[in-house]
Specification:
alpha/beta, seven-stranded parallel β-sheet, 7 strands
């Protein structure tokens, strides 16, 4: 069992989750990286060093979540940081959306965050210490045509954030959400250049964000510097929603 602070990061094999894991390791955390992409997760472990511990988890499956979280607590100690970042998209206009695509996105993005939080909250409550961050999205604030499932799942995280900030605050557990805008990840890298330029034109800073921008904000929210911030939803969108 490790005496260092332990943080759990879901969706840690790629994109924002990987950037968050790197930043937390730099800040001295021991990171339990959770992802369904087991092979990629093992590759990340070989790159990131001995303080990154990979756990193959299907966040939408209660048994997978409980098994992984029990193993994390037994092997690393009680996590006092949790970053619920795992997410998927299955885009389509409402009238054409297959109910299976609706269910899949809600299962990972919203139910997965609920299951991970429920599994780890008791340990934080016993420790009387914790910081939980939900990675929502700017579309939770604005909506997005063709993403009824995704925007609904990300908006649900905002309700979860505010509710749990009230439920867990008396145990010194803070709960916050970030709402990234257009971030350069695997979800956006294949967009045509004219589409990317159109997105950038809508952003006050005139450019898309980087995963490291999200990682810096998450690291701050997990730090003692954010000890009086809870129940907040912080846009990370370069001024898109101003």
């Amino acid at each position: 069992m490790n005496d260092s602070r332990v943080a759990v990061v879901t969706g840690s094999a790629r994109g924002i989750g990987l950037a968050v894991s790197r930043r937390l390791l730099q800040d001295g955390w021991v990171v339990a990286g959770c992802d369904l992409l087991e092979a990629e997760l093992e590759e990340r472990a070989s790159e990131l060093g001995q303080d990154f511990h990979p756990y193959a988890v299907d966040v939408g499956d209660p048994d997978s979540v409980s098994g992984a979280c029990e193993a994390i607590e037994a092997e690393l100690g009680v996590p006092t940081g949790l970053v619920n970042n795992a997410g998927i998209t299955r885009d389509g206009l409402l009238v054409r959306m297959d109910p299976a695509d609706w269910e899949a996105v809600l299962r990972v993005n919203l139910t997965g965050s609920f299951l991970m939080t429920r599994a780890l909250a008791r340990g934080m409550m016993r420790a009387r210490s914790g910081s939980i961050v939900y990675v929502s999205s700017v579309v939770a604030l604005t909506g997005s045509a063709g993403q009824a499932n995704y925007s609904s799942s990300k908006a649900g995280l905002l309700g979860l954030t505010r509710t749990l900030a009230r439920e867990l605050g008396s145990r010194n557990i803070r709960v916050n959400a970030i709402a990234p805008g257009f971030i350069e990840t695997d979800m956006t890298k294949d967009l045509p250049e004219e589409v990317r330029a159109g997105y950038a034109a809508r952003i006050a800073l005139g450019r898309m964000g980087q995963p490291g921008d999200a990682a810096a904000l998450v690291a701050f929210l997990l730090s003692d510097g954010a000890c009086y911030i809870s129940g907040a939803v912080i846009p990370l969108d370069g001024g898109l929603t101003t």
